[in-house]
Design brief:
Layout lengths: L8 H27 L1 E5 L5 E6 L4 E6 L1 H5 L2 H31 L16
Antiparallel strand pairs: 1-2, 2-3
Helix pairs in contact: 1-3
Amino acid sequence: MAGFGLPNFGQLTDAFRKAQQIQQNAQKLQEELEVMEVEGKSADGRTSVWLSGNQLPLKVRIDPTVLAEGKEVTESSFLDALKSAHEISTTTMKERMEELTGGLKLNLPGLNSEDQE
């Protein structure tokens, strides 16, 4: 089989084992992200937004002094905190996914993109 550019049985077995491990780790990561809380703050720190690791909104805190400054300041402060929380959440999720799949190297002849050039 190897003469046709196909991986041998050992390589396939190893690839399936690695894929199964990644699937199990992905489930654990999903559970961690569901209970994780990340806080984003406005630049001045007077408004905070909390999101789960899955980017679900959890809570908001707005300092009364922001509210006293009016609608536009409140909206701007809230948006700033929301953007911060979203950035932290997405960065955290991306880093955790890279940790999860970073070591994945199947080395299957004929199936890797560099083999098809």
